[in-house]
Structures are given as C-alpha cells and as structure tokens.
C-alpha cells in the first residue's frame, strides 16, 4: 500500500477529481497568491463536506475529515489551512442546528447546494489577544445589529461567501458571545492586502474590513459563552474540530516531505522508516480522538486532549522536518524550492490559537482538577 493512498482515496470518493487536479499542479502554483486550489475545492463540492446528508452535504465525520485534510495538506498546505477555517465554521453551525429551532439548517442546505465558503472572523492572529475575544465591535439599533472593525489575517478573504464573526451581546449573565454570519457582498464589507509572506500565500489570508455592516437577524447565533472565557457546547465542538483539522492539515504538509524521502532510495531505510513511523503515530493518535468524538460527542475533556494531540504533533513535525531535510541532502534542497517551502510552511502550526504558552497554565490547572478548562 502506497503512503497516503487511503487518505487520497477518501478525497476521490467524496470530492471526485480534486486530488488528481492538485497533484497535476506544481506546488509553487498552488501556494502562490491567486492559487487555483480554493476554486478546485469549491468545484468538487468541498464546502458541503461536513454538511449532514439530510441537508444535501457529504456528511463527513471527524475521522473522515481529518483524513481529507491530511491528503489536501500533502498537496497544498495553503488549501488545507484555508479550508480548515471553513470547516470550523460549518461544524459550529451543524452543532447549532442540532440543538436549535432556528434557521441554521437552511443555511447548511445552502452551503451544500450552492458551494458557499465561510471565512472565520474570530480573534485569531492578534498578539496577546484571546481567541474568544471579539475582533469586531457591535452596535445595536432596536433589533438591528451593526458590525465594525477588521479581521487580519482572514483566510479565504477573497473567495468567501460569508464571514463568521464573534461579537459581544448583552445577556442575562452579563456580556455574552454571539456568532454573526455576514454576506461577503454586504454593503460595508471590503478586503485589503495584508499577507506579506510567500508562505501559505494561497490561503488568501488578507484583511477583511467591516464598516457599520448590518447583520441579518436570521444570521445571528447566540451562545452561552460569557466574558470569563468558559466554553459552552457550541464553542467546544467548534474548537475540537478546529484543532483536529488544523493539526491534520500540517501533518499532511509534513507527510509531503516524508513522501519525498520515501521515494528517494538513496536515503537510508532506517531514516525513511523513522519519519513514516513518527507522522503515522501522530495521525493515528488524532484519529483515535476523532473516533471518540464521533461516537460520544465533544466535551471539555475531549478538547483538552485534542490540544495535547496538537502540541505533540508540533513536536513530531519538528523532528520529521529536521530528519527529512538532512536526509534528502543539500542537492535536493538546492535543486527544488519545494523542500524549503514545506519546511517553512509546517512551522506555522505553532502560530494558530491557542498557543502552547497561553494554554500551559489552563491545561495544568484543568488536569490538576482545579478549574474548568478556559481558553485565555
């Protein structure tokens, strides 16, 4: 069985033709600004991957989605990272629809039918800013809600159909978090250049600016999260999917380097086996957690262990990068930009929230039994 054969077969089954098209496109083209990957993903029906089958989607569970993201990451890290942001938002909507009598199910059906892409406007990317702290400000006028501010970086900025954003809303227990969905073509929404690095440039991570943009009432989802950072079930599910899929995406990028090592017979067999073992062990750990989520649902304990999987995967990736680059040698590094690119792209997992340093105390306190898990 060839390396990544199972993962790529799943992509072919659920998103026919996508893997072949990505494989036929040079990595440098897939990772450049204006890359074709997001368009190919959309044409293959990717936006509906997590939408339940009864709403017209593919109905993928977390185990399947992890394998898809790993396969995509092995072809285009930018595409895997960008689509994780979409899936994170869709998973949250699926959870909301399961426990709500609102209009979420109609939106899910539209995502699958019309291949709508959702960008995430949470507070990711702001130094010293907690992910639950809204990146935008809201004002109310009667029953109407208006948003202003900007999100940078915001993946899928140029291809999105909807922006999901967190905002503070008054509640019975003080200020609570709500999730708004803003049409990309709404008056007051604009996109500005922001991403200056060539690494992951294909993810369209630009600045999205909102200038007093009205949020339709049917596109506002209230949560039970208060300003102390405690997580309700909706947010817990969203975080579990985000961490698991983002980790899988970067394991896919690392797998691309491992694949190059495997096909180079000049590399010592022990080195090739070591790199495969390391990445597969991390992937199997992640899949085991995903299987538990699929059968039992997500909880605070699931999220805590998902974060441990992610941080352990970061360490695994660092080891694999070092071994692969050294084993492939200087001539391979000089002869193609792909090796240096993948080496840099894989490092970006550490930049996604919540960082290991920010979560050190909350995780230590949680496993010591002192406090509920908090996301600072």
TrEMBL record:
Name this polypeptide is given: Acyl-CoA dehydrogenase family protein
InterPro entries: Acyl-CoA_Oxase/DH_mid-dom_sf, AcylCo_DH-like_C, AcylCoA_DH/ox_N_sf, AcylCoA_DH/oxidase_NM_dom_sf
Lineage: Bacteria, Bacillati, Actinomycetota, Actinomycetes, Kitasatosporales
Keywords: FAD, Flavoprotein, Oxidoreductase
Annotated organism of origin: Streptomyces labedae
């Amino acid at each position: 069985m060839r390396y990544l054969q199972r993962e790529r077969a799943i992509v072919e089954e659920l998103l026919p033709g996508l893997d072949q098209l990505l494989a036929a496109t040079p990595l440098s083209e897939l990772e450049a600004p204006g890359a074709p990957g997001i368009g190919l993903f959309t044409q293959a029906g990717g936006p509906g991957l997590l939408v339940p089958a009864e709403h017209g989607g593919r109905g993928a569970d977390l185990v399947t989605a992890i394998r898809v993201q790993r396969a995509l990451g092995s072809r285009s890290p930018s595409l895997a990272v960008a689509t994780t942001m979409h899936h994170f938002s869709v998973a949250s909507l699926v959870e909301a629809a399961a426990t709500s009598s609102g209009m979420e199910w109609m939106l899910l059906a539209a995502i699958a039918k019309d291949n709508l892409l959702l960008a995430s406007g949470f507070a990711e990317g702001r130094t010293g800013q907690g992910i639950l702290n809204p990146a935008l400000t809201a004002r109310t006028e009667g029953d109407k809600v208006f948003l202003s501010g900007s999100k940078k970086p915001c993946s899928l900025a140029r291809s999105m159909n909807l922006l999901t954003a967190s905002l503070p809303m008054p509640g019975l227990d003080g200020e609570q978090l709500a999730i708004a969905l803003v049409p990309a073509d709404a008056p007051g929404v604009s996109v500005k250049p922001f991403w200056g690095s060539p690494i992951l440039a294909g993810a369209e991570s630009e600045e999205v600016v909102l200038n007093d943009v009205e949020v339709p009432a049917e596109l506002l989802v209230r949560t039970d999260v208060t300003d102390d950072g405690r997580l309700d079930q909706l947010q817990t599910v969203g975080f579990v999917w985000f961490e698991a899929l983002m980790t899988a995406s970067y394991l896919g990028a690392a797998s691309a380097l491992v694949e190059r090592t495997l096909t180079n017979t000049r590399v010592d067999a022990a080195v090739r086996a070591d790199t495969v073992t390391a990445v597969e062990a991390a992937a199997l750990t992640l899949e085991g957690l995903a299987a538990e989520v699929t059968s039992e649902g997500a909880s605070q304990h699931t999220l805590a262990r998902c974060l441990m999987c992610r941080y352990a995967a970061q360490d695994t990736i660092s080891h694999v990068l070092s071994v692969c680059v050294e084993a492939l040698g200087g001539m391979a590094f000089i002869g193609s930009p792909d090796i240096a690119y993948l080496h840099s792209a894989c490092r970006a997992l550490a930049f996604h929230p919540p960082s290991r340093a920010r979560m050190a105390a909350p995780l230590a306190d949680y496993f010591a039994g002192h406090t509920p898990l908090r996301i600072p």
